[in-house]
Structures are given as structure tokens and as C-alpha cells.
Design brief:
With 294 residues, the protein is α/β, with parallel strands linked by helices. The chain has nine helices and eleven strands. It starts with a helix and ends with a helix. The mean pLDDT is 85.
Length: 294
């Protein structure tokens, strides 16, 4: 058994079709069928159940796929570690985040201080971030709440609080605190669902037991223009209220208004120097935010 066999086996397992897999791998279908047959002969049992043209992993195949994924990932980590030693660093970081608000406080300053680092910031739901960390699609996850998986390390960065955002003309603009039930009948402004995989407004209203009444879904500039007229409300985070300079940011008094921000990564992955730099930077950001809250 060699790495090429494992790579080809992985593709067949994912595609569940020999012909499609052969096209993807740019090899002939007979060659790929023979390779799978040799692998099964070497392991002493069938790895797939055949159903017409489809091939579906059986229990033996699932065991091999699990170990094949680990072996291939270790190989990728070895390549990355060697490249890191040769070039002193790998400068590209892929960050999966559940909200753009979690990065408003630090992202621009980080990139200014470390202009040799390239950062891909991708919005995703919690389960997508977890899958991305395990598969290697993401290097880090930045989320509201811990990612619970035995292979993932999640560390708290800072405690935060959701706030209600309203324009200066809004009838609640002078409130010093607010409860979610107070906005049950308010018109709500939010990013479109395809731009924010885990919209705070959906999460909070669901916890409070009511469905949000959306009056406007659009980009940030459009929402701000509308809310300045005193119509509609939205949500933000206390740690980045300076970013809402033209809005009133009112703390949510509900218990569910409190939230912890976590940084997560796969524990068995190699972390490059650039990744460690971002990790240390975010730890300092968290300490500064918590110091401000005291």
C-alpha cells in the first residue's frame, strides 16, 4: 500500500463512483478499478458495497478512510512544516468566523503591524467552521461560543455583550439598557443570510422566543443609512461599539445577551510562525478588552 493508492481510494470513497473518480483523477476507469481491487486484495476484504454503478464504503472501507485521511493530513502537515523551516514562515492564514463583528476590533491593526501576512477571512456557521478545522480548510475559527470536538482546542479570548443598535432619532435611543422582549414588535435590520451564516439577530430572537420582523436586509452602509432616520434596530457587540459611531449602542440586559468569544484550532495540526503570531495577537486583544470592561 502506498500514498497514491490512499489518495485514489479517498477520491473514490468521496465520489462513490469509479467512472467519475477516474475522470477527476485523469486516469482510465479500468486502471482505477484494478487499483481498488489490489488494495482490497492486500487488506483481505472488500472495501465497498457495489450498487450498480455506485460504490459505497462498507465498515472495512470506513476504517481505512479514517486512517487514510489522518495519514494524508500528516503528510500535508509535514510538507507545511518543511516549507516553514525553509522559508522561515508560511504567510497565509485561513480564518473561519461566525460574524464579521468578531474581527472589527483587531483585523485592520493586525494586518498593518504584520504586512507580510496574508489573511483569508471567511464567514461560516459553527458546524462549518468545525468541519473546516478538521479537514484543514481553516487554520483557525473565531466564534461566539466554544467548538466542542475532541480534536479541536477552543480557548476563550474575551467575554462580550450583545448591544442593540438604534439611530439617534429612534424612540429607544435614550435608554441605558434594554431587554429583548422590548423589541419584539420593532422592525429589524440585518445582513442578508447569504452574507452572514450565523446572524446575531436570528440567534438572539430565537433564544428570546420570537421571530424577528425584518424590515430591511442589505449591506452595512444601507442598513446604517436607514437606521439613522430612526427606523429599525439591529445588533452589535459592546467590544466594538466604537465602530458604530453614528449609532446608539444600548447593552442588552438579558442573561442571553452575554457571550464569550473563542479561538479554535485543530490540536494535531502544525501551526506556522504566522499562525502563532495571530494566536498571540488575539490573546492580547482579549486581555485588553477584558481590562476595559473592569
Amino acid at each position: 500500500m502506498d500514498l497514491l493508492q490512499l489518495k485514489y481510494f479517498k477520491v473514490v470513497a468521496e465520489q462513490e463512483h469509479i467512472t467519475k473518480s477516474a475522470k477527476l483523477l485523469m486516469v482510465s476507469q479500468p486502471y482505477l478499478s484494478a487499483l481498488v481491487a489490489r488494495l482490497e486484495e492486500e487488506l483481505g476484504g472488500q472495501l465497498f458495497n457495489r450498487d450498480g454503478r455506485r460504490v459505497v464504503l462498507n465498515e472495512y472501507g470506513k476504517i481505512l478512510l479514517h486512517h487514510a485521511n489522518e495519514a494524508l493530513q500528516h503528510l500535508e502537515d509535514a510538507k507545511k512544516e518543511i516549507a516553514d523551516m525553509r522559508s522561515r514562515d508560511t504567510k497565509y492564514i485561513r480564518l473561519g468566523s461566525s460574524s464579521t463583528m468578531l474581527s472589527k476590533r483587531w483585523l485592520v491593526d493586525f494586518l498593518k503591524e504584520h504586512d507580510d501576512i496574508r489573511l483569508a477571512h471567511l464567514l461560516a456557521a459553527h458546524n462549518e467552521i468545525m468541519d473546516g478545522l478538521l479537514s484543514g480548510r481553516f487554520d483557525f475559527g473565531l466564534t461566539t461560543g466554544r467548538l466542542d470536538h475532541p480534536k479541536i482546542i477552543s480557548v476563550p479570548l474575551w467575554k462580550d455583550r450583545y448591544t442593540l443598535l438604534v439611530g439617534a432619532r429612534h424612540h429607544m435611543a435614550r435608554r441605558r439598557k434594554i431587554y429583548l422582549q422590548d423589541i419584539q414588535n420593532e422592525k429589524i435590520c440585518a445582513l442578508p443570510e447569504d452574507q452572514s451564516k450565523l446572524r446575531i439577530v436570528d440567534e438572539l430572537c430565537k433564544k428570546a422566543g420570537f421571530e424577528p420582523d425584518f424590515v430591511l436586509e442589505g449591506n452595512v452602509e444601507l442598513l446604517s443609512d436607514y437606521m439613522r432616520e430612526g427606523v429599525g434596530v439591529s445588533f452589535g457587540l459592546a467590544s466594538v461599539e466604537a465602530a458604530y459611531s453614528d449609532m446608539r449602542s444600548i447593552p442588552l440586559a438579558d442573561e442571553i445577551g452575554a457571550v464569550s468569544i473563542y479561538l479554535s484550532w485543530c490540536g494535531d495540526r502544525y501551526l506556522t510562525n504566522s499562525m502563532l503570531t495571530l494566536q498571540r495577537y488575539l490573546n492580547e486583544v482579549g486581555k485588553n478588552i477584558e481590562a476595559e470592561q473592569k
